[in-house]
Write a structure and sequence with these properties.
Elements: E1 3-7, H1 11-15, H2 19-26, E2 30-34, H3 45-48, E3 54-58, E4 69-73, E5 79-81, H4 87-90, E6 95-99, E7 104-109, H5 117-139, E8 144-149, H6 173-184, H7 190-194
Parallel strand pairs: 1-2, 7-8
Antiparallel strand pairs: 2-4, 3-4, 5-6, 6-7
Helix pairs in contact: 5-6
């Protein structure tokens, strides 16, 4: 089964480009997107109804143009969840849970902690509470795939300028400690499993033409 995760940073914006062409080319069995940045009534028909797929969405109900996750699946999930039963997280539209016969797939947009100390605390609490929820499923015998935007670079190899970012949310030691704990608890970083020494990055800032450089 081919699973793909993509932070689109605004679904309506990428639909105006070549998203549907890319979607077809990727030929995913399940394609998960984060930061859709739309409400339910704003979901374009061409995104919601792609032939051969069911689609599933979680939207922020407290802030417009914010957060949101979606997924398309060739095989319809046996059940779909839209949170973990904690309102302060679920109302931001950050979590989709797709239960298939042999595994559970989570599509998560983990919080960004850069705006304030309060949001950093929210992010760390989200890590704690989500993985407590995931651990319960794991102990019950479910196989888990947790994809999405973690909003944290784990190790120095995972970002271009580690020293310059040590005091910024996204690479703080306290955030990275959570990723240490997750991997120590048996969760596997699939990219690093296959490419343990590759200096590859999944995100570039739009500022300073960083990707081109």
């Amino acid at each position: 089964m081919k699973l793909i995760s993509w932070n689109v940073n605004g679904l309506r914006a990428v639909l105006k480009k070549d998203f549907l062409k890319s979607f077809s080319h990727l030929d995913a069995d399940v394609l998960c997107v984060q930061e859709t940045k739309l409400q339910e009534h704003q979901l374009p028909d061409e995104a919601e109804n792609i032939e051969g797929y069911t689609s599933h969405w979680a939207h922020s109900v407290i802030k417009k143009g914010y957060s949101g996750v979606g997924a398309w699946a060739r095989v319809e999930p046996e059940s779909v969840g839209y949170g973990i039963g904690i309102e302060e997280y679920d109302q931001e539209g950050r979590i989709l849970q797709l239960d298939f016969e042999k595994f559970t797939l989570f599509n998560i947009y983990f919080p960004n902690g850069q705006m304030s100390e309060e949001r950093l605390a929210y992010k760390l609490n989200f890590y704690r509470d989500f993985f407590a929820y995931a651990d319960r499923l794991k102990r019950a015998g479910r196989s888990l795939v947790i994809c999405g935007d973690y909003n944290t670079a784990h190790n120095e190899i995972d970002l271009k300028n580690p020293k310059a970012n040590e005091k910024r949310s996204g690479f703080l030691r306290i955030e990275r400690d959570w990723l240490d704990k997750i991997t120590a608890d048996g969760y596997v970083d699939t990219f690093r499993y296959f490419y343990p020494e590759s200096a590859k990055y999944s995100w570039w800032t739009y500022r300073f033409k960083a990707r081109a450089r």
